[in-house]
Amino acid sequence: MGFLRLMLLFERHNNSASFLFILHLAALVVLATNCSRSKQVEEEKVHQPSDLEIIRETGILKVVIDYNSTNYFVYRGKPMGYQYELVMKLCDDMDVRPEITVSNNMAETFEGLKSGRFDLVAKNLTVTRPRQMEVAFTRPLKQTRQVLVQRKPSADTPDSLFLNTTLDLAGKQIHVQQNTTYYRRLLNLSEEIGHPIRVVEDSVNGVEQLVSMVARGEIDYTVCDENVALLNQNYYPNLDVSLKISFPQHIAWAVRKESDDLKEFLDRWIVQFKETKEYREIYHLYFESQRTTGRFGSPFHSIAGGKISEYDPLVKELAKKHNWDWRLISS
Q1: 110-138, pLDDT tens digit by residue?
Q2: What is an example of a Pfam family matching this protein (predicted)?
Q3: Is there a smaller number of Cβ atoms within 10 Å at the N or the C end of the chain?
């Protein structure tokens, strides 16, 4: 209610009682208006720091990486891996320290991101619509396709087990890592071919463990990204990874949906860094170089050989008591 309206009321009720009433009412209006404005000013002054600001203020970027022969592993006591080196370069450019958690559990990964335990998921995440409902993806790091991993026909593997087309998947049992896009892709493929595919979600073994199980004949089929499959084919020459079961898909990192400024920073960084010689060298080292096969066959490779140093048993025992990653301590 404005002062003009109050004056009109005063003229209609020109007596002392009315005047006192209107004067009191005017005071309440002024007081309420000032309080409202003060509250608005105070709210404007209160600034909630963004995720990127918190990371820079604390000097720590909390990252979760998966443990395999490409993303993160330890070789001769030194942490290595495609995603590991990207994260280290990112933190160097941000002038922060990485706090790395190693986890192959996808459910734990996404829950940890949403709860604030992690700031960044630095894994080979396939960008899908269901996942976009939960997290925000960065610009793609690369593209890949999903392929079927199976054994080549041999004396130990009859031709009847070898699959040539996606139609041959009908009725077959395929093991995939739990909570991955491979499971959803096989369900969709089952609808497309009009026949059921028996998909077994493995909650214990990761992608590369399942690949090795196929190579050893413990299971017949699994699914993984093409670049990882081609890399593992160097380790296991008896594998065939030629059957594609998806179109090319984007692979990216993920942050919380509300981390707009962090995502914007990461998008710029990824686009710029992918154009550098350093990025090309990192990619070549882990996906194209013949030295990769040699590292994997070494007893000092933390996945294939599992040996980092002669003190491994002692480190493992101490790390287990404190729920630490013994590989990070030994390295």
Answers
A1: 999 999 999 999 999 999 999 999 999 99
A2: SBP_bac_3
A3: N
| Helix extents (H) in the chain | 3-12, 16-45, 51-58, 82-94, 106-115, 129-132, 181-193, 207-215, 226-235, 260-273, 277-287, 291-296, 312-322, 326-330
Residue type at 8?
A: L
Res 158 pLDDT > 80: no
- The first and second tokens of residue 41, run together, are 């000013």
Q: Find how far residue 65's CA is from the centre of its chain.
A: 8
> CATH classification of 51-143+251-330, choosing from 2.60.40.1120, 3.10.129.10, 3.40.1000.10, 3.40.190.10?
3.40.190.10
Identify the DSSP state of 168.
G
CA neighbor of 157 nearest in space, from 96, 72, 217, 92? 217
CA atoms within 13 A on the CB side of 100: 28
Residues recorded for the chain: 331
Tokens of 280: 């090309």
Continuous H helices in 125-205: 129-132, 181-193
CA 71-280-100 angle, 5° bins: 30
Q: Which fold, 146-240?
A: D-Maltodextrin-Binding Protein; domain 2 (3.40.190)
| Tens-digit pLDDT profile for residues 265-312 | 999 999 999 999 999 999 999 888 776 655 555 554 445 555 555 556
